[in-house]
């Protein structure tokens, strides 16, 4: 209500009464920079949701934008942080209670449910902070300045409010924090903060509900690729998209979301993110929740490949919104989730454990061709002799031959053993336990077939594009093994001598 252009009850002060010693303890609370900054983002998101219709009616194409900016000194040390948003602002009706520590909002079903976010978050990062806000349809902005030393020294229970004329249609909140505590992040931590905020707000960022910027760089969330492949025990079957929508309930506790199998194993992406009210509570970047009952122990392929997002209802969270204390009922939900992904016609657990990436044949062939059987001087072809000789034997020229029958699945190359020319055929196969084995069934035609098992765990742990030497070693070992066979010497010493003799002469 306004009278003569002024509010009937315009607060001149705001209460900060909690006991002055408590403020000095806020910086000792267990927390992380990302979760502290998330409190400001939560406030902005909730303000936007509460005022969405009016905000969108005021501005065509309106989009909520939250910006976080760290100021640094000449040495690169962070000396202050600013958080700003263009949400609905803090209205007069909420302004007085907004600064009361532990004063819960009337509606505590949103993101700012505890009434501790702004005060504890700002005090956790810095001893001095200022909040300036302008609410929709209020012709004045409001500013409150907090100085820890003054509050403690003078035992202040209230802080004055500064009013300035403002366009009634303006809407924003700006928080400036300085005099850093030991919790203020370092410059090198900014990238980690960006990743964690991206993970926490993955749903809102994915749905483009708002824009988040850190150091003027837009924060986005990249969804993890899901495996699309036939069932591991039916390799000739149709590809299956290994992602399943989940909906479970145990009494008042509910969970919905999805479970999937990662296309590629990558640390930090496996495990579960648990969300509540649209934001991640447990399992932000590099801190996902794991369930050994069905994911197995660390190091198993199930553990490395299974991931998911589960939005829960009915659970309370810790005051800093990074934990769900009720582990018993949460585990009960995941017991039910296990039942939904371990079905006869959709056995995700079996697929995650037994599936092996078939390294792209194209990549492997590219490496093999690059490291063809060419000598270091690029003139004299390489030969291998079953009789030890200090000098290099003379052999005929060799020609690389590409199979015309199946260029995607095989490769042919010539080599010499004791002056006799052979053809090495590399075929890609699946199954078995060996990394490779030599097939000499066509020896009469001077052919050596090296079967390379693309499902071997060896290829799970290397990127052929970055580990070309590994592929070269396989090819070299195959030839050395064949030469040892021709020598009728299956000893390790004999094999290694032939291997070393061969690889020393090959162009790297």
TrEMBL record:
The record's Pfam families line, in alphabetical order, gives: HATPase_c_3
Entries under SUPFAM superfamilies matching the protein: ATPase domain of HSP90 chaperone/DNA topoisomerase II/histidine kinase
Under the heading InterPro entries, the entry gives: HATPase_C_sf (IPR036890)
This protein is called ATP-binding protein
Q: Which organism is it from?
A: Segatella copri
């Amino acid at each position: 209500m306004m009278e003569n252009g002024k509010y009937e009850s315009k607060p001149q002060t705001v209460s900060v009464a909690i006991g002055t010693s408590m403020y000095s303890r806020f910086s000792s609370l267990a927390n992380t920079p990302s979760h502290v900054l998330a409190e400001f983002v939560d406030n902005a998101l909730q303000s936007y949701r509460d005022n969405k219709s009016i905000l969108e009616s005021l501005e065509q194409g309106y989009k909520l934008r939250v910006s976080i900016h760290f100021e640094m000194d000449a040495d690169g040390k962070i000396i202050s942080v600013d958080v700003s948003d263009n949400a609905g602002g803090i209205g007069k009706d909420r302004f007085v209670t907004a600064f009361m520590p532990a004063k819960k909002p009337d509606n505590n079903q949103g993101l700012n449910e505890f009434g501790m976010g702004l005060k504890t978050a700002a005090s956790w990062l810095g001893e001095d902070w200022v909040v300036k806000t302008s609410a929709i349809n209020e012709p004045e902005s409001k500013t409150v300045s907090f100085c820890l030393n003054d509050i403690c020294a003078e035992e202040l229970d209230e802080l004055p409010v500064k009013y300035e004329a403002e366009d009634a249609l303006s809407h924003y909140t700006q928080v400036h924090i300085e005099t850093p505590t030991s919790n203020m992040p370092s410059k090198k931590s900014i990238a980690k903060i960006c990743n964690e905020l991206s993970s926490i707000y993955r749903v809102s960022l994915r749905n483009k509900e708002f824009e988040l910027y850190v150091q003027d760089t837009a924060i986005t969330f990249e969804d993890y690729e899901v495996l699309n492949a036939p069932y591991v025990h039916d390799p000739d079957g149709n590809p299956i998209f290994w992602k399943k929508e989940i909906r479970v309930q145990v009494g008042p506790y509910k969970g919905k979301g999805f479970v999937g199998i990662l296309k590629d194993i990558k640390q930090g992406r496996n495990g579960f993110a648990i969300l509540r009210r649209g934001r991640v509570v447990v399992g932000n970047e590099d801190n996902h929740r794991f369930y050994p009952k069905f994911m197995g122990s660390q190091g198993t392929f199930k553990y490395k490949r299974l991931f998911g997002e589960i939005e829960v209802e009915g659970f309370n969270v810790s005051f800093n919104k990074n934990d769900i204390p009720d582990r018993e009922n949460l585990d009960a939900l995941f017991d039910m989730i296990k039942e939904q992904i371990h079905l006869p016609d959709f056995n995700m657990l079996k697929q995650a454990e037994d599936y092996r990436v078939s390294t792209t044949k194209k990549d492997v062939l590219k490496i093999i061709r690059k490291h063809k059987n060419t000598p270091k001087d690029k003139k004299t072809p390489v030969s291998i002799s079953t009789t030890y000789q200090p000098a290099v034997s003379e052999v005929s020229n060799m020609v690389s031959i590409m199979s015309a029958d199946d260029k995607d699945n095989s490769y042919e190359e010539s080599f010499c053993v004791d002056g006799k020319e052979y053809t090495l055929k590399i075929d890609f196969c699946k199954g078995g336990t060996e990394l490779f084995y030599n097939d000499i069934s066509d020896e009469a035609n001077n052919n050596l077939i090296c079967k390379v098992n693309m499902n071997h765990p060896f290829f799970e742990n290397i990127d052929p594009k970055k580990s070309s030497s590994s592929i070269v070693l396989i090819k070299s070992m195959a030839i050395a093994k064949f030469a040892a066979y021709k020598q009728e010497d299956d000893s390790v010493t004999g094999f290694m001598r032939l291997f070393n003799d061969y690889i020393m002469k090959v162009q790297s």
